[in-house]
Task: inverse folding
């Protein structure tokens, strides 16, 4: 039985240093550090982000949070102002070179920021942590697909998307994904993002409205989500939103996600009524982002897998 | 029937696909933070040797292949079949030449091979990584010609032909790496 850390002590020192830099960054920006529970009564109902069920002895069904988003928004509604958190989060079934079921997010919220301002600050933090300059390219989700997969993600049918996978030598999944979004996800991870230049930072924005999650939707044609992601080369680092503040719309999205979650046969997190009540009370106009801290450490330390930067990854936890 | 879920995928795992046993060579978990997870997998068809790429939606299961790797002693070839035996049970298995393939040129009687059994019959035969074989024919090396690291062909007792240094002579036993087909050294003693 192996008891030693899988990350070298030099990498653990890098990790500690990056945590310091993160706290300095937010302290200088007037953003307050907060802590919220990891063990929560309601979690993210998105079936693509499955929660680990953790039921205390004799207690009600609880979940390990997949991100501190709900709790931090409740703080914002209560008037906290700008806040950040460095939090361990849990996502069931995620394991691979760039995934570990438990990982660390840096999540923060800025009042008065929109999608663009939030993306800009995210890039500044990434560059600060990596201590290196990089060319930043802003590209819409549609343009990235047109450029690298030769397909319009907003108008393409499921058949078009399947054909685009074929054209790009992506083996058709054994069981065909049920939804258009699943096909888009396959093309994004297998064709579009791998074509990104390894030395550039990309801000991918204007996601399809069907992938809005907790972002506002901009009522253009086609409608797009005020959501962005930041990639360093082909590595996804951050996801951010101009936050949805409409409680009615949020409830609608939760219910539709919940229905899809239930189909998977897993214990489905209940709708987060506390968050909805908070939204009804009023969420200040704000943007928020979650940055995968372990992946940033991986880049900073010049490593290729999370197991080289986590002291004890899942199989040694 | 046993099956494996994608989260059990790892290299070396044997699974059934299109009615043929396959071994997983590489397994990559890909997932956008907020999207559908997939496993992109490279597999080798153990019957044909062909390597294919497959994509699975994470969480899916596929049937396990009833395949086991067993160490067996190579006994002899009767011209039609190659015969092997498990040393502990003395159970014997016969493999067709098509199964043996290139491994045949390294097989020396009594050597221990790794035989992969599928439905209890040999599917793949891997020779030992290193074998010691006698040179049955090679031209005499020329003295003073060794500085350039010169080599010459040598035919071994099993029929394999390998390139050996000029100083190695007919009748000597040499050690060969069967994965590369390259001469390693003279055999000790």
Result:
């Amino acid at each position: 039985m192996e008891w030693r850390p899988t990350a070298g002590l030099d990498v653990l020192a890098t990790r500690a240093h990056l945590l310091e830099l993160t706290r300095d960054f937010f302290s200088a920006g007037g953003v307050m550090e907060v802590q919220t529970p990891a063990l929560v009564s309601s979690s993210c109902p998105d079936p693509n982000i499955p929660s680990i069920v953790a039921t205390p002895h004799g207690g009600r069904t609880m979940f390990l949070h997949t991100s501190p988003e709900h709790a931090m928004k409740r703080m914002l509604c209560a008037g906290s102002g700008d806040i950040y958190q460095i939090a361990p989060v849990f996502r069931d079934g995620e394991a691979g070179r760039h995934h570990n079921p438990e990982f660390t997010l840096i999540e923060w919220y800025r009042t008065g920021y929109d999608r663009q301002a939030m993306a800009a600050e995210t890039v500044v933090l990434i560059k600060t942590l990596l201590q290196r300059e990089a060319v930043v390219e802003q590209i819409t989700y549609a343009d990235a697909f047109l450029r690298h997969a030769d397909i319009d993600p907003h108008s393409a049918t499921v058949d078009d998307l399947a054909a685009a996978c074929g054209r790009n030598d992506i083996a058709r999944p054994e069981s065909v994904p049920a939804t258009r979004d699943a096909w888009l996800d396959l093309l994004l991870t297998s064709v579009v993002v791998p074509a990104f230049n390894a030395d550039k930072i990309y801000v991918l924005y204007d996601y399809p409205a069907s992938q809005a999650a907790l972002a506002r939707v901009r009522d253009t044609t086609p409608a797009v989500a005020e959501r962005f992601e930041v990639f360093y080369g082909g590595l996804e680092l951050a996801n951010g939103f101009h936050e949805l503040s409409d409680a009615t719309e949020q409830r609608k999205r939760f219910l539709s996600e919940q229905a899809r979650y239930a189909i998977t046969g897993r214990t489905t997190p209940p709708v987060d009524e506390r968050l909805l009540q908070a939204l009804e009370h009023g969420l200040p106009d704000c943007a928020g982002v979650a940055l995968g801290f372990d992946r940033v450490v991986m880049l900073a330390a010049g490593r290729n897998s999370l197991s080289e930067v986590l002291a004890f990854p899942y199989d040694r936890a | 029937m046993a099956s494996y879920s994608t989260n059990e995928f790892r290299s070396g795992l044997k699974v059934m696909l299109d009615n043929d046993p396959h071994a997983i060579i590489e397994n990559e978990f890909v997932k956008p933070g907020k999207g559908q997870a997939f496993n992109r997998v490279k597999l080798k068809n153990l019957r044909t040797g062909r390597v294919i790429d497959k994509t699975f939606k994470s969480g899916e299961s596929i049937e396990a292949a009833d395949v086991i790797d067993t160490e067996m002693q190579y006994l002899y070839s009767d011209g039609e079949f190659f015969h092997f035996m498990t040393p502990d049970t003395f159970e014997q298995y016969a493999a067709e030449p098509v199964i043996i393939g290139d491994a045949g040129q390294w097989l020396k009687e009594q050597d221990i091979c790794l035989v992969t059994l599928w439905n209890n019959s040999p599917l793949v035969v891997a020779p030992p990584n290193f074998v010691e074989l006698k040179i049955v024919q090679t031209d005499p090396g020329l003295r003073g010609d060794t500085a350039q690291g010169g080599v010459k062909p040598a035919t071994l007792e099993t029929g394999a032909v390998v390139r050996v240094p000029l100083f190695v002579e007919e009748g000597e036993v040499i050690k060969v790496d069967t994965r590369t087909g390259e001469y390693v050294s003279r055999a000790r003693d």
